[in-house]
Structures are given as structure tokens and as C-alpha cells.
Amino acid sequence: MSFLQDKIFKLKGKVQHYAWGGFSYIPSWLGEENKDNKPYAEYWMGAHPSAPSEIQTPNGTLSLDVLIKDYPEEFIGEKVQKQFGELPYLFKILDVHEMLSIQVHPTKEEAEKGFAAEETVGVPLNAPNRNYKDKNHKPEVMVALSEFWLLHGFKPKDELMITLKTIAEFAELEELFLEKSYKGLYQHVMELPQDKVDEILRPLVEKELKRKASGDLSKDEPGWWVCKLFDGKEDSISSIDRGVFSIYFFNIVKAEQGEAVFQGAGIPHAYLEGQNVELMANSDNVLRGGLTPKHVDVPELLKHTTFQGIDPHLMKGKDTNGEKVYNCPVPDFGISKIELSGDQTYSGKASSLEIIVVIDGELTVAGANSVEAKKGEALAILQGESYTISTGSRVLAYKAFVP
Question: Name one Pfam family in it (predicted).
Fold first, then answer.
């Protein structure tokens, strides 16, 4: 195909209007008006079959997933095609306005088993009670574009003990935790009958709402997020989502702009608020445990959760040849930050298909051909292409690649 003499292309992603998204960050970044006041939650860049990106070529606009199927060697390269059979990552921009569900992602082996089991019993792929949409694992990394808040893993043992000791409503849980550790504690609260959940949590929610009203809460406290959950619903505190327990049991993490958090299989987590760049394996497998109207499968969640306390690790990125690389312990993807000003340049060679998204400023990528991109735009660089990035003024961009 004649257009393949070019190796660098503009890439147009797809917006996902999930209910938890914000209304201004992504439209403003894309330079669009949000006339209908829709939530703009995610902007997807990749070849996921449910929302593939489009590549702008001299032959017109073509779908990235089709191009990879038709020209795997040219687009992703022989090695990646052999190992993964597809572009193994999905790149996103997120604007988290409302809290996301408590979730865990399975390992690759468990995803393959779960997918096969649901196929065998004939659960339709688009059924709301389907857990496994594909056979892949879904490790993910996020880099904060603003101050970003999330829940990430269980608190270390001594911190969780303090939580259970100091919150009167959790008094009966302290002994259970000492006797049966993380799994016993979490399984207990996740399997409680709803009336018992309400009995424990209602007085606690009411107490937190009073603290918020008198200005006694800050974002590093569980009560802040509990109040956010009940914002505008203060008069109907019933059928309380058992995900509230997780807000107290998990680490509350604040990532500053440019800091990253990696979430491997089994680590329970939930995004709370802010904007980020997210990169994940090309999968849609999510096991949910609350804070959501979507399907929650407690037994499946418990089966795949890592029950241990962790100290969250915030990655600052490692300076390597003019980019900051955030090292992730998976073969599916890598992510780096490219920040240039004035006459600075960056040179690279695409090990597989690379996607570069411009967060702010503008850049020119020059190789076999030359393409300019500004804030809100993205570029795809084909496997094997050597290229140089320059800017007329300044640029902040993130690059997704296969290590």
C-alpha cells in the first residue's frame, strides 16, 4: 500500500462518556465544545476492538485495528506479533470526577480460565454480569496530570489496626483481623447481610457528614471520600454500599503531577479524583467489589485479591536519554514522559508501534516523513522507524511503547 512509505501518522482516539467523567478537562484539552454537557471520562488511543483509533493517511482515515491485522509486520513488528498477536497495550487520558468502583484485575492465567468458563456456560460477551471480556490480564500504570487521589492496596498491618481500634463502629472487627488476617476481615465485611452493613456504617456515615459540615475533614482521610459518595444524598442513608469498608481499609494515595502508580494483578484499587495518563494491557477484565451500580461478584473478587498490606510506591520516573521512563514490571507496555523547550530535541527508534500524545504545547516528529502535533493530538510511529522530536517553544508529551 503506497501510504506505507510514511512511517509517522496523526492518530485520532475515541472518547468514552462514562457517567463518572468530568465535563471540561478532556473537551478543553481536545479543543472541543461540550454543548450537550456530557461526561468525558476517557480518551482511548490504541487498537482495542470496541473503540479502535483512526490513523490519518494519504489514502484517507483508516482504523488502527484493521491496519494491524492487515500489516502486522509494518505496524507492530514480527517480534510483538509473535508474542502478543496484537498491539498489547491501550493508552488513555482519564478525567475522574466521581469515584470509580473498587476493583481487582486477574492474572493472565486466571483470565484465560475465567474467560473459558464463561464461554462454556454461554454468558454473552456484552452481558452485564460477565466478568471476563477477554483472555488477557490487565496490569496498568497511571501518571498524574494533576493532583490525583486513589485507593491502592490494603493498609500495612499496624495502620489497619489503628483504623480498627480508633473507629468505634469497627470495634467488633479488630479481633477478627487479629485472628483471620486480611482475607478473613475482608471476606467478612463483603459477605455481611445488607441490614448488618447498614447497622455498622450508617452511624459512621452520619458522623463523617457532621465532621465535613464543620470543616474537620481533609482529602487524606477516608471520611472525605465517604462524604463525597453521599453528597446530595444525606437524607437517604440506607442500603449503604459495602465498598465504604474499603475506603477505610485501603491506602489513600495522593500522586502529584508527573508521579506514577503501577497496579499489578490482585491489587485492589479505585481511582478517586483527578486527571491522569493511563496505560494498560489491552484488556477489559474488571472484577468489582463496590462503589458502583455495575455488576459486583464478591466470590470472584475474593478469589483474585492479594491479601496483604502494602506501602504504596510512587514512581518519579528515571531520566534516560532525554525522557523520563517509568519502569513497569510487565512485557506488554512501557511509558515515558518527554518534556522539551527551545532548541532541545529527543531522538528515538520505535521498538514496536509507539503512540505519542501531546498534553501541552506542540512538537514536530521527523523521520521518513514529518508530522506536527499540538495539545490534544496524538501520533503513531511505525515499528523500526528512527525519528527526532523538536518543538518551536515547549512541549509535554507521553509515549507508550512495547519494551
Answer: PMI_typeI_cat
Domain coordinates in residue numbering, the chain: 171-249
| In the block, residue with C-alpha cell 484493521 | 66
The angle subtended at Cα 339 by Cα 338 and Cα 341, nearest 5°, is 140
Q: Burial letters for 288-326: b for 16+ Cβ neighbours within 10 Å, e otherwise?
A: bbbbbeeebebebbbebbeeebeebeebebeeeeebbbb
Under a CB-based contact definition with an 8 Å cutoff, are residues 127 and 247 in contact?
A: no
Instruction: Tell me if residue 288 is catalytic.
Output: yes
Q: What does the DSSP assignment read for 135-151?
A: S----EEEEESSSEEEE
Res 1: pLDDT: 57
* Mean pLDDT on 220-232: 94
Q: How much is the pLDDT for 206?
A: 95
Rounded CA-CA distance 34/17 in Å is 11
Q: Tell me how far apart the 2 most distant CA atoms of the chain are, in Å.
A: 71
- Annotated catalytic residue within 130, 211, 242, 288: 288
Spatial contact of 268 and 103, defined as CB atoms under 8 Å apart: yes
Contact 156, 311 (CB under 8 A): yes
- Cβ atoms of 264 and 110 within 8 Å: the answer is no
| Beta strand spans in 102-234 (E) | 103-104, 140-144, 148-154
Across the range 172-177, mean pLDDT stands at 97
Supply angle C-alpha 109, 112, 114, rounded to 5.
Answer: 105
Give the pLDDT mean for 235-254: 93
pLDDT value for 296: 81
| pLDDT of amino acid 25 | 98
CA distances for 396 relative to 31, 340, 376, angstroms: 17, 7, 11
Neighbours of 368 (CB within 10 A): 14
